[in-house]
Amino acid sequence: MSEENKEINEAPQNEETSVKQKIITKGLSDLSPIKIVRYVLIFLCVLLMIGIWFRIKPASSPSVTPEEEETAEASAEPAPLPTELTDPASVTVLVNKTHSLPADYVPANLVTPYVLSISDVIQVNQLAADQLKAMVNAANESGVTLYLTSGYISYETQDDYFNDRAGMVGEAEANKVIAKAGFSEHQTGLAFDFSDNASGTATTVAFAETEAGKWLIEHAWEYGFIMRYPDGKEAVTGYSYQPWHFRYLGTDVAKAMHDIAPDLTMEEYYQVN
Q1: Tally of CB atoms within 10 A around 84
Q2: Which fold has domain 83-270?
Q3: In the chain, what are the domain boundaries?
Q4: Interatomic CA distance for residues 145 and 75, integer angstroms
Q5: Where are the alpha helices (DSSP H) in the chain?
Q6: Residue 118's pLDDT band (cuts 50, 70, 90)
Q7: Residue 81: how many CB atoms within 10 A of its CB?
Q8: pLDDT grade, residue 260 (50/70/90)?
Q9: What are phi and psi of 157, to 5 degrees?
């Protein structure tokens, strides 16, 4: 190729490159410093907004299925009760709808209290005997006749009582006033029923309005006894109101409960079911 042809071919390319350079140079020269600063600020603002969005965006947590929640709840076992509430020989052993005694449990220290009672064969736990006698004697000295109608009841006898009652009124109704065998406080020898007459027929809510019932409500705690199934606490104890049924817990615990509320239950005091 001749030199003339090379010059002719290269001329358009050189002219095109020169034009592009002029356009770029002119474009940059048209940008004033203020415009450049403005563009930079806009760019920085965009970056800042993106950073804020990522910062406040909630972290995605792994989804938990209902089945997994139920499994977790089921695996969480309740804390074990202290020995004072589980040992059958403890004066504060808890016996209720959910906490029972062994079928073969018989207190090793049963005694006859020798107080006014409807029967000479009533036995009680030695832990409560002295305070029981002191309470009954104090009531009698105050002019209030107080009879003991029930103390220790064996597993077998309690089973007969419950079945007899259930046969008359149905199991659901019987379960409101009589404990099933193994779930009765009477098996501890620390629970007692009272009456204001020798026939022992006052085991109704009307007993609370008798002189004997009123005296017990006012003074039983002084001797270590509490009304086990107070009025209005059916949802807590599982039993209907029984103003004739008292439980011995010892003077310290009974006083502590009475100081909180005269009708406090064991379940509420120990915060258990």
Answers
A1: 13
A2: Muramoyl-pentapeptide Carboxypeptidase; domain 2 (3.30.1380)
A3: 3-56, 83-270
A4: 53
A5: 3-30, 33-56, 66-75, 83-86, 126-141, 155-169, 171-177, 211-219, 234-237, 251-260, 266-270
A6: confident
A7: 14
A8: very high
A9: -65, -40
